Amino acid sequence: MKSRPLLARISSVLGIAIGIAGVAFVTRTLISKWDEVSDAFSQVDAINLVLSLLLGLAAMTSIGWIWVTMIVARSHNVRHRNAMAWYFTGQLGKYVPGGIWPIVGRAELAVRNGIPRLDAYASTGLSLVTTYAAAVVTIGIGAAATAGHRLIAVLIAIGLIVAYAAFSQPSLRAVIIRVATRVSSSASSLTDPKRLARLTALHVPAWILMSLSTSVTATAFGAKISIADMLFITTTSWLAGFVVVGVPGGIGVREAVFTSLAGGIIGTPMAVSLALMSRVVFITVDLTGALVSSVISRLNKSVES
Q1: Which residues contact 59 (CB under 8 A, 6 or more apart)?
Q2: Is 190 left (phi over 0), alpha (psi -120 to 50) or beta?
């Protein structure tokens, strides 16, 4: 039992170190390429940024909707238009240092609104696990569609097949969950392989929407990058930001990975500009989602009362 908190502390320290390194990388690039970066920002098309915001909002709404559906599946009479406020408000917790707040935020808001603690945390954990698994699938799709990353697509496909086969064996599944739980408590919510695969597939469209949002942001800068490349780069950078524990919202990590992957296609100054603007867009998405969903929830409760 003592190894779990120790492992969590080690992961958190490493995550913070990686986050600092990422911020330093982006900052150094921003300073050294300031003329090109400032020129890129001066030519941004605001209409495309609005479209990017709407696509990002659709992506996050999709993830939240599935999470609420998981709660409903546990025999709780919850209205999506009320519970979406729990999701979006809880999402703001990811900007607080530490890796637990995206889980605690959503789950605790659900608990405060009458959902049993076990069900609230189990649904949130399962949501996170299947969201990350869908990111891996989406990276594989993007890699398969681009000439330079086919080997990555093959390795991901093999890995997913092996993981599904192993998880289909009850004894192996118990061992996998026990080991994974030592790294993240979210793993304890893992379900049977068929349902896990189905929930993972349901989350893939959200990653596609996030990548399309970033593609539209790229268009706002006049950057030319294919949808397939953006699917691979965006999802990889987001996943990197997610898995590094202790970094609020993956700040620095996501931008550094994005810049490294996209720099060879659109140039480093444009890549860092796009990474930073994408961050602004998705922070706005989270704030807009929290505001709109809270208003809808309050109006709905007023009508019901």
Answers
A1: 206, 207, 209, 210, 213, 285
A2: beta
Q: Kindly report the number of other CB atoms within 10 A of residue 136's CB atom.
A: 17
Give Cβ neighbours of residue 112 (< 8 Å, ≥ 6 apart): none
Query: Both ends of the chain: CA-CA distance in Å?
Result: 47
- Phi and psi angles of residue 45, each rounded to the nearest 5 degrees, phi first: -90, 115
Of 76, 208, 247, the residue nearest 86 (C-alpha): 76
CB 121, CB 105: distance < 8 Å: no
- Consecutive H or E run containing 205: helix 193-221
Give CA–CA dist 212/210, Å, rounded.
Answer: 5
- Indicate the pTM of the whole model: 0.82
**What span, in angstroms and rounded, lies between the C-alpha atoms of 290 and 305?**
22
- Condensed to tens digits (0 to 9), the pLDDT of residues 54-82 reads 999 999 999 999 999 999 888 778 888 88
Neighbours of 281 (CB within 10 A): 21
Between the CA of residue 143 and those of 70, 219, 229, 234, what are the distances in Å?
30, 21, 8, 12
